[in-house]
Write a structure and sequence with these properties.
heterodimer; A: alpha+beta; Aldehyde Ferredoxin Oxidoreductase Protein, subunit A, domain 2; 3 domains; four-stranded mixed β-sheet; 25 helices; 22 strands; globular; B: alpha+beta; two-stranded antiparallel sheet; 4 helices; 24% strand
Chain lengths: 652, 185
């Protein structure tokens, strides 16, 4: 019997119209847990490195986390992986809500989709009954609208639906996949659209078994109640009306301009009124007591839900106020576009117009005001009309296509992906490394466990570390106690901190827990309900596998190295690992490159950022090393292959 | 019918629909608590509490499984509460043939909330315990009521009544007569 997981994949080939239920190997669960970990293994094994993201051979994988459907609170984030046409690397995306747990109750750990349907279809999963259904009548429908229509059509309100909107149908690179008011960003909607898959509807009424149920229930119950009572987890932006942090520090427009004293009491009062006059309620995701999502009805616009910085991106890109974000978010959500990347593409286009690289002819009939222009550009992009057809390929690709100096305005991307609009003074070493080497494309998916800022006094720092349960090792307490100025911290500490920050995301994204109660939240206060010291016990109780802190840490590193290998095979190298040149005002190339080299070495990667055979073998990834050597990506050298028979004969 | 006033403790779960966030932790916990052996499996579709959830129309209503009703209602009303429309089904806790709330998914048998009173009884029902949003609260009220003589109905009576419901009284009488003819006293 399998515990915490169902032990089955659902394999769909949209070209052939085939549907298979395939049993999985429990040994893989031991090594890769689930979620992104298992998806990386599947992508490594089944998608050859030269497959174009738009090829039918590209896979689109919807994964549950290992703890989805168990009593573990806030284990509900569905993981979506594929290869992205924007970065040509592995896309990693997540969305909250109810989809993942429902899929488990239907009897599947993940859905693996290959091929392309001849025309729009949707997938209907009702326990063992799985159908590929016609969706041509849903063409052009909004994301939540599609969910509603499918529920009506199936006469079942309890079906969970994930769908693309017009943007995904038109293969807009910034297209998202939306489930109710939760959204999978970072380049996955484009592939769902390319596969002509409008939506997936899931209903599950089966049992999920737990290895040590009573003990697990008790521990989870305790975490659940602590979460509910704690202000140290969840999205504080759902309730905190003081948003001076983003508005005074993040850059406006095309990640261009900081307005340091933007925030005021008067503005806060006005914005608070806008919010509460139009907010229907706050909602949560499956089995989580936090209510991170604000659901809004803005007059004359579709109802929408937002969380976190998603409320600021549009109006900051457009140099407007919160009411503009409220106006456009409902429409953008129905079209299904990434609210982090899309406003940057639009602001980029308007900068090119201002600079004369694009002209009025490129924007026929565009209104003169910023508000009108953003609505205009949204329509052009999701329909791929006129200039929208170029802009729909994201900032980096559009800049290349437009040429004529446009590349200089592509100043906020890493690995061709739009980054948060942060332009600061001095380099924060850990953030330099995370931005450079991250493969989840957004800093929000990499940062999070070690505090962003030092505390001002020694007493405060000492007090902080006393209550710090989340640390994987006491050395982090020492790092923090001795940390006085943001930019002054040893390279050794920086490497450790980056590894810890990233490891927690790799754990969350394998077991399905939400960053707001785990990997993302520790940086703002330290006290998180889930950490590397209590997660192993929960995994052991849920699955019956042996698990401890050391083993979990190694598992996180294994998945990390595998993702790196997947991307290295597709060409990722050191030259790609550069934060935007103007991310910080004061730069020191020598120091940064030196730090990057140290980090590569610390990770067991070559000077080009490729995991070495020794490192891969230590992580039980010998087969990956073989593959990289066969392709000539890793050199077969005697010192690195010690222990293998052939090497022995050479050295002997 | 006789006798004076007695007090009885009425146990209730109060629902504040404005506080419900739709997380369905109550469903998870209920299904775990009522699994055999206890907590051994999770399956919200077997829960005796359901969040009637409609994100698009902003409806979030937790309802508990009440008695089985043999037929669906004739008139289903729409109520407007706080400017929002709710169908009567959003509030009705009956296990009902017209919808799949509170029906055991495999056997089709009705499910019923027992207030977690099975042995050993919980002080507070499981769903209330896990409701972080505090949409569910548990109350015990003392109510005075006139004591009525309890009429205990026998198995035969209940069985016959259901046969009558299904086939009509005439058919049951005729069949009884038919059968009794062939029986020795």
């Amino acid at each position: 019997m399998r515990y915490a997981e169902t032990g089955f994949n659902l394999e769909i080939d949209l070209s052939r119209g085939s549907i298979d239920k395939v049993e999985t190997d429990p040994r893989d669960t031991e090594l890769y847990l689930g979620g992104q970990g298992m998806a990386a293994k599947i992508l490594f094994e089944r998608v050859p490195a030269d497959v174009d993201p738009f090829s039918p051979d590209n896979l689109l994988i919807f994964s549950t986390g290992l703890l989805h459907g168990t009593p573990a609170p806030a284990a509900n984030r569905t993981v979506v992986n594929t290869f992205s046409p924007q970065t040509n690397l592995m896309s990693h995306s997540l969305f909250g809500g109810f989809f993942g747990p429902e899929l488990k109750y239907a009897g599947y750990d993940r859905i693996i989709i290959r091929g392309k349907a001849p025309d729009l279809v949707y997938l209907y999963i009702n326990n063992d009954k799985v159908e590929i259904r016609d969706a041509t009548h849903l063409r052009g429908k909004g994301t939540t609208e599609t969910g509603e229509l499918i529920k009506k059509e199936l006469n079942d309100q309890k079906v969970q639906v994930a769908a693309i909107g017009l943007a995904g149908e038109n293969r807009v690179f910034m297209a998202s996949i939306d489930h109710n008011h939760a959204s999978a960003a970072r380049g996955v909607g484009v592939i769902m659209g390319d596969k002509r898959l409008k939506a997936i509807a899931v209903r599950g009424t089966k049992e999920l078994n737990i290895a040590h149920p009573a003990e697990m229930f008790e521990i989870c119950q305790d975490i659940h109640l602590k979460m509910a009572a704690s202000s140290g987890c969840g999205d504080w932006m759902a309730d905190d009306e003081d948003d001076s942090f983003h508005h005074n520090h993040f850059a406006w427009g095309n990640a261009r301009k900081r307005i340091k004293n933007y925030w005021s009491d008067e503005l806060q009062e006005r914005w608070t009124r806008w919010k509460y006059d139009h907010m229907d309620r706050q909602t949560g995701c499956y089995n989580c007591p936090k209510k991170c999502r604000n659901v809004m009805s803005w007059p004359g616009k579709p109802r929408f839900g937002y969380k976190c910085f998603g409320k600021d991106t549009y109006h900051m890109a457009a140099f407007l106020e919160l009411d503009f974000s409220y106006e456009i978010l409902g429409i953008a959500q129905e079209y299904g576009v990434d609210s982090y990347a899309t406003p940057q593409v639009m602001a980029f286009a308007l900068e090119l117009l201002e600079a004369g690289i694009l002209t009025d002819k490129d924007f026929p009939d565009m209104p003169a005001d910023s508000r009108g222009r953003f609505f205009y550009l949204l329509e052009k992009i999701v329909r791929r009309e006129g200039i929208g057809d170029i802009l729909a390929n994201s900032v980096s690709h559009a800049a290349k296509q437009i040429g004529n100096g446009a590349e200089a305005y592509d100043h906020n991307t890493v690995k061709k992906f739009e980054q948060l609009p942060i332009k600061l003074g001095k380099v924060n070493p850990a953030f330099f490394l995370m931005l450079a080497t991250g493969e989840k494309m957004s800093i929000t998916q990499i940062e999070g466990s070690f505090p962003q800022d030092p505390l001002p006094t020694q007493e405060e720092r000492d007090e902080f570390v006393k209550k710090w349960e989340a640390v994987p090792d006491d050395k982090f307490k020492e790092y923090f106690r001795n940390w006085k100025k943001k930019s002054e911290i040893s390279d050794e500490a920086t490497c450790d901190i980056v590894e810890w920050n990233e490891a927690m995301h790799y754990i969350d994204d394998a077991i399905g827990t939400c960053g707001f109660v785990s990997s993302f939240r520790g940086q703002f206060g330290g006290a998180v309900p889930y950490h590397v010291n209590n997660i192993p016990g929960i995994i052991a109780l849920a699955t019956g596998m042996e698990m401890d802190q050391q083993k979990l840490w190694k598992t996180a590193q294994r998945i990390r190295a595998l993702v790196r290998a997947v991307n290295v095979r597709r060409g990722l190298r050191r030259k790609d690992e550069r934060p935007p040149e103007d991310h910080w005002a004061v730069r020191n190339e020598e120091y940064e490159q030196n730090l990057l080299s140290k980090y590569y070495e610390f990770k067991g990667w070559t000077s080009e950022g490729i995991p070495t055979r020794q490192k891969l073998e230590n992580l039980d990834l010998g087969y990956v090393a073989d593959d990289l050597e066969q392709r000539g990506i890793l050199k077969i050298d005697a010192s690195a292959t010690a222990g293998r028979p052939s090497a022995e004969t050479v050295t002997g | 019918m006789t006798a004076g006033l007695t007090t009885k403790t009425v146990k209730e779960i109060l629902v504040d629909i404005d506080k419900c966030t739709g997380c369905r932790a109550c469903e998870m916990a209920c299904s775990a608590y009522h699994a055999t052996p206890r907590y051994s499996s999770i399956n919200p579709s077997k829960a005796r509490i359901r969040v009637v959830c409609d994100e698009i129309n902003d409806e979030y209503v937790p309802i508990r499984a009440g008695d089985y009703t043999p037929s669906e209602c004739n008139g289903r009303h729409i109520y407007t509460i706080g400017g929002k429309q709710y169908s009567e089904c959003s509030f009705c806790g009956a296990s009902c043939p017209s919808r799949d709330y509170f029906v055991e998914p495999d056997s089709g048998l009705p499910l019923k909330c027992d207030m977690c009173e099975s042995v050993p009884a919980l002080e507070v029902p499981m769903c209330v315990k896990v409701c972080g949003a505090e949409a569910l609260t548990y109350v015990e009220r003392e109510v005075k009521r006139e004591e009525k003589e309890q009429v205990k109905r026998g198995e035969i009576e209940i069985g016959l009544e259901s046969l009558v419901k299904k086939h009509g009284v005439q058919a049951v009488i005729e069949t009884m007569a038919q059968i009794s003819k062939g029986l020795k006293p």
